[in-house]
């Protein structure tokens, strides 16, 4: 494990008066390899779009009143520097691992730093993420055990949470909703959290995120693409 940047969160953003407690871990893939399903639509804008999604997701996570700290697992120097400047702690991926190894690595690090904090992992491709909706999701997680939120299509997962002392056991990728349920995690059945469910893999997903209202980084790239 390499610590790429020091934690700067508390110097950049004030802590919420509502006692934030959650450690949140977000994975960010190397930009040149990320969001390949957007290639036909985004062309040369794809890496910039992937970075914009991550910046908007991490900004909203840092603004969530329930969140005490945001850790990003990321091998990409450009993305890592930009995300650290927002106030996230950036860790390098373990070499050779994929998404679930990156999440387990980030979760283990968060646990070492704050063993008593509740922990959640969140996909970093949620450019419409609203801090208040994320707070509602985290507030619905049972005090003991594991819980997850399904993505907008109901196939995958955007958030997996677990209480202190429980193994996270992430099983992300493709049809992960079914895998997380089969692994004993409780599904969070919340009606009004579209921004936490709306991950963006395709051009249609991006159109839906734009309709919900994306953050400034994604808005700027989308505007540049439209020119
Ligand atoms: N650190 C890290 N993050 C990953 C890795 N693979 C995926 N991610 C991140 O995990 C989240 C969900 O991944 P996907 O939706 O599959 O994103 P993607 O792999 O960029 O997209 P596709 O290339 O279209 O499959 C996104 O925030 C990705 O950046 C990985 O190997 N390491
Ligand atoms: C990573 C996942 O899926 P996708 O790559 O389709 O976003 C998932 O939902 O677990």
Brief summary of the model shown:
The chain is an alpha/beta fold.
Topology, pairings included?
Blueprint: H1 9-12, E1 22-28, H2 39-42, H3 46-62, E2 67-74, H4 77-86, E3 89-91, H5 99-113, E4 119-122, H6 131-140, E5 146-150, E6 157-162, H7 176-182, E7 186-187, H8 194-197, H9 203-212, H10 216-226
Parallel strand pairs: 1-2, 1-4, 2-3, 5-7
Antiparallel strand pairs: 4-6, 5-6
Helix pairs in contact: 3-4, 3-10
The structure holds guanosine-5'-triphosphate and phosphoenolpyruvate (PEP).
- Report, as a whole number of angstroms, the end-to-end distance: 42 Å
Round the mean pLDDT to the nearest integer and report it.
91
Task: Give the fraction of residues assigned to helices.
Answer: 40-55%
How many distinct folded domains? 1
The total of helices stands at 10
**What ligand molecules are bound, each kind once?**
guanosine-5'-triphosphate, phosphoenolpyruvate
Structure keywords:
alpha/beta; 41% helix; binds guanosine-5'-triphosphate; globular; Spore Coat Polysaccharide Biosynthesis Protein SpsA, Chain A; 227 residues; 15% strand; 10 helices; disordered N terminus; single chain; seven-stranded mixed β-sheet; 7 strands; GTP binding; binds phosphoenolpyruvate; Nucleotide-diphossugar_trans; phospholactate guanylyltransferase activity; GTP-binding
């Amino acid at each position: 494990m390499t610590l790429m940047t020091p934690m700067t969160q508390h110097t950049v953003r004030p802590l919420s008066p509502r006692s934030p407690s959650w450690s949140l871990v977000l994975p960010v893939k190397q930009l040149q390899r990320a969001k390949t399903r957007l290639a036909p639509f985004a062309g040369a804008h794809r890496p910039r779009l992937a970075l914009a999604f991550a910046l908007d997701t991490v900004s909203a996570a840092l603004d969530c009143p329930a969140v005490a700290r945001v850790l990003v697992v990321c091998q990409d120097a450009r993305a890592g520097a930009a995300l650290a400047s927002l106030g996230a702690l950036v860790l390098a991926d373990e070499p050779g691992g994929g998404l679930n190894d990156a999440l387990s690595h980030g979760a283990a690090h968060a646990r070492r730093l704050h063993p008593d904090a509740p922990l959640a992992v969140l996909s970093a491709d949620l450019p419409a993420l609203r801090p208040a909706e994320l707070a509602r999701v985290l507030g619905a997680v049972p005090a003991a055990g594991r819980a997850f939120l399904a993505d907008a299509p109901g196939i995958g997962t955007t958030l997996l949470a677990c209480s202190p002392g429980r193994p996270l056991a992430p099983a992300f990728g493709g049809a992960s909703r079914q895998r997380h349920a089969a692994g004993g995690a409780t599904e969070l059945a919340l009606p009004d959290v579209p921004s936490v469910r709306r991950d963006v893999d395709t051009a249609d997903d991006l159109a839906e995120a734009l309709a919900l209202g994306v953050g400034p980084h994604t808005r700027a790239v989308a505007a540049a693409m439209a020119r």
